[in-house]
Each structure stands twice: as C-alpha cells, then as structure tokens.
Amino acid sequence: LMGSADLLRSSAVTPAIIRDFDLFHRSVKAVVKAVGAAERPDSASLVGAFFAKLASSFRPLGLKVLSLGDLEDSVFESTEPVGPARKEYLSLLEYLVAKGTGAVEDPVGKGLTPSVGHTAHWRIQTLVATFLYILIRKDVDTPARAVTFLGRSLASEVVTLRQVCSRAVALLQTLQRNGHQGSDVCEPVREILVQPEFCEHLVQTLALDQWDETTDGGREAKRGSSGIGLMSIGRTLDGDACWSVSLGRSWPRNWIPRSRDKLGIVRVRLFESFAKAYGVDLMRGLEPTLTKLVAKEHGIPGITKENIRLITAEIVAGLARGLRADELSDHQGSQIQQWATELLQDFSGQDGMVNGGTMIRLMATGGENSIGARVVEQIIEQFLKGPILDLKSPAHSQARCLRYLQCSLADADFRSVFGAKVVAATMPELTSSEIFSHPLKHVREENARCLSLLSSFSHPKAQEAYMQAVQSVADRLSEVANLDPQSDERKARSREGETLSRWFEVVSWNGDMVAFSNYMGTLLPAVFASLDESDAERISHLRFALSLSAQARLRAEVVDEVVDVSEKASKSQMWKIRGATLPFLQVLAFCRNFAVPESLVRRLREVVVNLVADEQREVREAAAHTLIPMIRDAKQQDIESIMDFFTFQLEKTKPARGARKAKMAQATLVARHSAVLGLSSMVRSAPYGIPKWMPKVLVALTPCISDPPPISTSTRELFADFWRTHRDEWAIHKLSFSEYELESVMELLIAPSYYA
Prior knowledge:
Elements (H helix, E strand, L loop, with lengths): L1 H10 L3 H5 L1 H17 L3 H18 L25 H17 L3 E2 L6 E2 L8 H14 L8 H9 L6 H19 L9 H7 L2 H13 L16 H13 L3 H6 L18 H14 L1 H15 L10 H18 L7 H17 L2 H16 L6 H15 L9 H15 L7 H14 L2 H4 L4 H14 L5 H18 L10 H23 L2 H17 L6 H15 L5 H14 L5 H17 L6 H15 L4 H16 L3 H17 L13 H19 L9 H8 L9 H16 L3 H4 L5 H11 L7
Antiparallel strand pairs: 1-2
Helix pairs in contact: 1-4, 3-5, 3-6, 4-6, 4-11, 5-6, 6-8, 6-11, 7-9, 8-11, 10-14, 13-15, 14-15, 14-16, 15-16, 15-17, 15-18, 16-18, 17-18, 17-19, 19-22, 20-23, 22-24, 23-25, 24-25, 24-26, 25-27, 26-28, 28-29, 28-30, 29-30, 30-32, 31-32, 32-33, 32-34, 33-36
C-alpha cells in the first residue's frame, strides 16, 4: 500500500494524470480503496499526502474552475452536454457519494448499492468530501446527491470533514451566483438548513469545534490527514476568494484580530455566506436555537457559558452581515437587533469588551442595506440620546461603553454630516474633567481611543466641535499650577496628563496624524505642562507621546507652530519641563532636517544652544547630548559659528591668573560649564575623525581640567571619550595636529608614568 501510494504520488506531477481523465478516475478509486483498507495510521497519512499533491496538480489557482472541455489532450474529445467525458465524470461523482454514504460493492459487478443503516468510516467520508471539492466543475451541474452529502456533513463530528464541506458549499454558492452552475444546484443545502433540528445540531457541533484555519486544531481522535492537507491547498486555490468575490463583504478597515479577540472569523464568514445565499429561510431554521441560547435557556454539554456566548455572537454577526434589511419582516429585524443588544450587554471583562467591540465592527461593515448596519445605527443613536457613561456603574461597564462607542464609529463616513453630529454630541463629555481624569486607568485608555478616532472626522462642523473641546483641555492643563502633591486636585491633574499622553500615542500609532496635526499646536503646551510629574510611568508615557508626535507627518505651518510652542516650553520656570523638551526637539530636528527651510533648522539649534546654558545642571548636560547630532548634520559655516560662540564664552569666563583655585561665582561657573559642554558636543559629533576645527577646540579645553567641578569633571570625561574612540588610528589622527597642539593634548590623553 505504501509503495503504491508513492507511485501514485510521483505520477501526480506528470501532465498525463491531469490530461487523461480516465487515469484520474482510476487514481481516485485506488486512493479511496487504499484508505479504506489501511489499518495503520501512517498508511492513511501517506495516502493523504498523495492526495494533497494530486489536488494541487489537478486544480488551477483561483476560482477559474476546470471544465472538461478545457482538457486539450483528453482521450474524450466530445464537448457535448452529454458526452463521454461528462458521463464518466458524473459516474465518478456517483461512485464517490455512494462510498461516502456507506455503499457496498455488488458481487455481480453491477455497481454500488447503498447500505441501509451503515455509515462509512470517517476517513472515507473525509476523502470523499475532499475529492468532491476538487471535482466541482463549472460546465456540469453537481448532482443533488453530492450536494446533499456535502450539506449534511457540515454538522459532522469530524473536524476536517466539516471544514472541507464548508469550503465545497461556499464554492458551489459562488459558482451558482456567477452562472457557472444551475440556479437550483444549492437547493439541497437550503432544504437542510431550514430544518431547526439540523440547525441546532450544527450550532452544537460548531461550538465544540475550536478549530482555526491558521492551525491544525480539532479533536485528535477524529482528524483526517487528507482533509488537513486540503486546508492548506484551499487557502491557496480558493481560500477566502469564494467568500469575498461574490458572497462576502469587506472586513473593517485597519482591523486586525488581536490576541484577546476570540471570535472565530471562519464561522462568521460561514454564516454570512449562508445568510446571503439562503436569506430568511436560514433565519427560520436558526431562530429557535438562537433564541434559547441568547436567553440562556439552553446549554450545550461540554461547552462553557463563555464559549456558548461566543458561538452565538459569531452566528448573529454572520446573519447581520449577510441578511438585507428589506427582505426581513419587522419581527425578524427586531429579533436580530434584540439578540445583538442582549449579547453585547452580556459580554464582560477585558475579553468580553474586545469580543463585543469586534462583533459591532463586523456588523457595521455588513453593507449599507444590511441589518447589521441598522443595528449599529441604533447603538449610535442610544449613545447620542443621553450621557455616554454612567459614572455610578461598574468600572468594566464604563470601559465597555467607550469601546462600543469607538467600534460603532470606526467604520463610519468621516466626511458625513452625521459624523459631525456625533462629534458635537460626544466630545464635550469625553473631554470633561470627570471622564478625562477618571480614577480608573482602563477607562482613561478607552477614552483616549475614542478621542483619537473622532479626530479623523473631517466635516467642517466636526472639526469646529473638536477644536472647541481640544481648546477646553488645553486651557485646563496648559498652565503649571503649584498644587499640593497629595491633594485631590493634583492627583486629578496628573491623571488628565496621562490621558493626554495616551491620546497622542493612540493617534500616532493607529489614527490619522495628518488630521490630528490641526489640533497638535493647541495641545502641545498642555503636554509640556504635564511633564511636571513625579510618577515615572506617566513621565515615560508623556515622553513617548512627544517622540511619536515629533516623527509624524506635519504640514509646514504646523511645524512652525510646533517650534513656537517648543521654544516657549524651553523657557518654562520648571526645569523638568525645560529638560523634557530636548528629546522632542532632537527627534523633530532629525526628521525635518531635509524637509523644512534651513532657517527653521537653525532656530531649533538655537533653542538647544540656549538650553546648554541653563542654570540647572541636568538640563545643561541633556542639552549637550541633544546638540551632538545637530552639529553632525549642520553645515560647515554653522559649525564654525557654534565654535566661535562657545570659544568666546570660554575665553570670557577664564579665571584670572593666580585665581584659578579661588571659588568661582555661580553665574560664571554656569557660563563656563555650558561653554565646555558645547565644545564637548562638537568633539563628540565626530567620534572617528579629526575635522579641521577639532585641534583648536581640544587645545581650548585643556586649561579647564584644573577648574572646579563640574567643569573639570566634564573636561576629563571628554578627553577620556576622545582617546577611547581615536587611539586605534592615532598614528594617522595625530598628523592633523601641530607640534604645539599635539603636546598640549597628549598631556591629558596619556596618564603620566611612575618611571617618567
């Protein structure tokens, strides 16, 4: 058996097995018999591997299904509707269906006779279903018995059999819709799905199936290797094409299922395609089961309440996406809306909130006339009628409301008048101090997501309403207030600063930063003012938000406004705020080095140079590090201008002869230290080379080694760094120095020897 499978597998790569349908017919029967006779699991797996190779060779890519007349070198030359090739094809289908339903060989040799009360082995059923799947053709209607076998197998207990049959039924629906199959080819499936008993069994079976199409999951005891092989082929050949080309609608934009998202997209897609193909008939079949599950009157043995809620949400989402509102009665439409509302209210916790939000987005993208879109419109109307949050409700309920609001609006038309109405109604509440400084971190994060989304609405009235709300936040947070760190007002302000930083972060990662840039200049002063914070985590979020904002795509006028705000923040009375502007300026200058006028780059550099002379040592040293890449990217004339400025300042603060050990005035100490730091930034900007100006700078710094700290400390660190980066090629670098310069510098580079 194993040798025969190897032979068949090797022959599958040759064109003969594709061109000669008779040879393919014989191969199919040989494989079916081989799997039926296999007692060892590895033998069946080997035959399954052969089938995977055979299927990939026989089926073309995409939805362009083979027709018998397309086989150019076929031994059957007739292309008539009832030609020999079609008779042979239909005969093969009948043979496969009979084997899949448990038929037995007639000893006289007259064919196959169905066996009453007998069911074929699950491996045979899976293999038959997979062969039927690859044999579906566009020029010959699939027999009703074959369609019935595929339809009833949708509720099979065998995982792979269910998956193969769902792909085959989806392909049949697509071919029927495209006119490649008869208009009634899927009627057997409709007749099956309208039966409430079958639908109940189908839902129970799917609830037990935690299989995902990206894995080989399922119950190990009943997993067919050939079906698993077909799944990888099906994704390449048909995959989502059957669903997206003619049956399904697009998924939500910018939407990626997250790790916490447990909704099975495969099942949503399955019921969406069924709903669009069979309409209200499917609704009648599922209504009794769904009503019981939503009302929690009916459980499924072996399934937790959470998983029952998930499978119910998947089915309702699929129905809401696939059913048209105009084809449903008022009772049916209100029934789906009631199911969706009760399910959304029943979700709880972090996972439930995410799953409920995903369900809303799936319904919202079902199409303009889908019942799902109507349901989401009702959800939005409920938000507009009253307060979004009930501050007395449980915490998870408040966070869930904000997530549902975000998901309801995520796929709306950002340019519509309705969008402007939503922004005008929601922004004042979302930016109020009660919600903006909400005591629960989870609620503040969800609020930031909502604010980020609403910034994308581009209708003029929406932008006006958004700007008014932004201005209220800026007025409330821009001024630095001296408050008691333990007071409730100070804690609320700290929480508002964290919400503001989350707002910037979410916009930068997932939002429309170009649209948000209209409000960036107004909010930046509030971000800088919030940096006067003692909480390390919140400070980290604020700095990260500023870094992302500096990298954003900004218009020229917005960049000018941002620089004005940054320059003002660099003159703040709080040294923490002055120091926190430096990383923002560094990223802003680097990202705009070749995109803005040179005058603006010089202006940014001047702000940093002024901060090098700051009275706070931490700010001076941070500014010196920020200045390094700015000098490296500057033009030669700008570098010389910076060198002249700091050299003049160093010479101006030079202590008188004999007074070097005397105590230096604080103002002089700060000025001289800033000059040393500025010249050190110049040296560090060229760590592996010796520009023409560097010897003069090093010689000018040598007398500072004897100055009081922190001047002498910074000087020693500079010469240590210089020697570390230049000593490997010092034989070449020292040629750039004159004899006097080399002698002055070498005294500080090499420690004196005891024997010298």
